[in-house]
Specification:
With 508 residues, the chain is of the alpha+beta class. 51% of the residues lie in helices and 10% in strands. The longest helix is centred in the C-terminal third of the chain and has 20 residues.
């Protein structure tokens, strides 16, 4: 049998209805030969949801993408005119789907499939023929069946070093074992990541960090030597002296925090498993923070460019929050522990990594703010309305800080979690969320009772920084219940100016 002869797979391929609609359209007319390739065939075999489709076309692929968009009332884009790649965005009953059409690589379908990354992605199906059969020249189905990740050729990693990160991601994503030759090729190609496009490194890294088990993926990436070239700031400090006083293995702590970010977010899911609330730590979180699950999940849906997830950005903050040097552990008289010495170092390194990864300005600002403030919750001495108002000047960043603080605490203590201290922290976070989500108009952002123009006119002040400082102080006083009206605000402003040694304006 020819290697490209379609055959019945060992298990049925499950395609959504919209793929059959597309098949019916492409099977008509004088279209060139078209195949579904890559991840969609893999996912049909694994019975996973399919939201995008890669087509390889023995002809004008851009024209095919345009025809698909026109036929199904979607949008069309040329992704790469030189390589002949077009994209159709189509709305189906199952939601918005992406169909990418690319010109056949090489002279034949075999050349196209052999040039791909892993055999599980080198399957094809004839979209103009029988979608129940597969084309499998590289024995990808056998690898799927054996839960094995294997590269398509010895040149696969060297020809595109981004595939090294993809190897880690897909092995964890599907629970597959990376076979030994693929592991060796990943190690050999790792140094070439520094020459890869920063944008491609960023996007593959964010996909890896978006996995349900990012800590497991990071352990594999570390073992294969990838992190040195992708996140050098978080590179494990192997060989660190373990018996030095109050010195903690920074990498172990960082991975524990990353793992516990997933634990915290998992506890807040509506479809969380029963075991998520069975343990003391997660059970107390669920009990105290349950009423804020909906707004917290909405917060985690924050969108970043190119569909990069907010979860991945929070995980990146966890990776970098203690970056730069070994963590120093301080123990107070009550036996409470915390790691210090990283606030400024971590933020500066985060700025450098954000630039290296070509993050947007908004992502960079959020990343720095999370890291810069990651000790704020633990350092809050009291939870007065004024203190809560000051904390929530952080805005949405404060939500990220609270989530990271919970994960950081769990990652610091592990199995030795002090119950009283944990209860205190969870209750502190609950009080912060209550102010932010339930008492916003009273504590976080009280409706202004006075404007800058009012202050200038009533107190004879000149425009400048003093006006902004006064307005901030008045808002704090509003949150504390000390200012309720315009008259209160003016009286407070006069006292504030006098107490701070400023020129007392004449009374009006």
């Amino acid at each position: 049998m020819n290697a490209l002869t379609p055959r019945s797979p060992k298990r049925p391929l499950l395609w959504p209805d919209w793929v059959y609609d597309l098949r019916d359209f492409l099977a008509q007319g004088s279209h060139p030969k078209i195949y579904i390739v890559g991840g969609a065939v893999r996912d049909a075999w694994l019975h996973r949801p399919i939201h995008d489709l890669d087509l390889t076309v023995a002809g004008d692929a851009v024209r095919v993408a345009r025809l698909i968009a026109n036929r199904f009332g979607g949008d069309f884009y040329v992704l790469d005119a030189e390589r002949g790649v077009g994209r159709a965005l189509v709305t189906t009953p199952a939601g918005r789907v992406v169909v990418d059409a690319a010109r056949l690589r090489g002279e034949s379908l075999y050349d196209d499939l052999a040039d791909r990354d892993f055999t599980l992605n080198a399957l094809a199906a004839d979209i103009q023929g029988d979608l129940e059969q597969i084309i499998d020249p590289l024995a990808g189905e056998a690898d799927l069946d054996a839960k094995r990740l294997r590269r398509c050729s010895p040149q696969a990693m060297a020809s595109d070093p981004i595939r090294t990160l993809r190897a880690v991601r897909q092995s964890i994503q599907f629970g597959f074992r990376m076979e030994s030759e693929t592991q060796q090729d990943v190690r050999m190609a790792a140094p070439r990541l520094v020459d890869a496009s920063p944008e491609r490194v960023r996007d593959e890294l964010f996909k890896l960090l978006s996995l349900p088990r990012p800590a497991a993926a990071l352990r594999v990436a570390d073992a294969l030597g990838l992190l040195t070239y992708v996140l050098p700031e978080a590179t494990p400090l192997h060989g660190l002296e373990q018996d030095a006083p109050h010195v903690y293995d920074a990498w172990t702590h960082t991975l524990a925090v990353v793992e516990n970010v997933s634990v915290v977010l998992g506890t807040l899911r509506f479809n969380r498993p029963d075991q998520a609330v069975g343990a003391f730590s997660t059970g107390m979180m669920a009990m105290q923070l349950d009423r804020y699950r909906a707004p917290l999940l909405e917060h985690m849906e924050t969108g970043w460019p190119n569909e990069r997830s907010h979860r991945a950005l929070l995980i990146l903050a966890a990776l970098l929050h203690d970056a730069g040097k070994p963590s120093t552990l301080q123990v107070d008289e009550a036996g409470r522990r915390r790691f210090v010495g990283h606030e400024s170092v971590g933020a500066a390194l985060a700025d450098a990594r954000a630039r290296a990864l070509r993050l947007s300005a908004a992502e960079s600002d959020r990343l720095r703010a999370i890291i810069q403030n990651h000790m704020r919750v633990l350092l809050l001495r009291e939870l007065t309305p004024r203190a809560l108002h000051r904390f929530w000047r952080l805005g949405a960043v404060g939500v990220d800080v609270c989530l990271l603080t919970l994960a950081d605490f769990l990652g610091t203590y592990g199995a030795e979690l002090p119950q009283d201290a944990w209860l205190d922290l969870v209750d502190r976070v609950r009080a912060l969320f209550e102010a932010y989500f339930d008492q916003r108009d009273r504590i976080v952002a009280p409706p202004p009772v006075i404007s800058g123009s009012d202050l200038i006119q009533a107190l004879g002040l000149s425009p400048g920084p003093t006006i902004g400082q006064l307005l901030d102080a008045i808002r704090e006083a509003q949150a504390a219940g000390e200012v309720l009206s315009l008259e209160d605000a003016l009286a407070f402003a006069r006292r504030h100016l006098g107490q701070n040694g400023a020129h007392e304006p004449p009374s009006s």
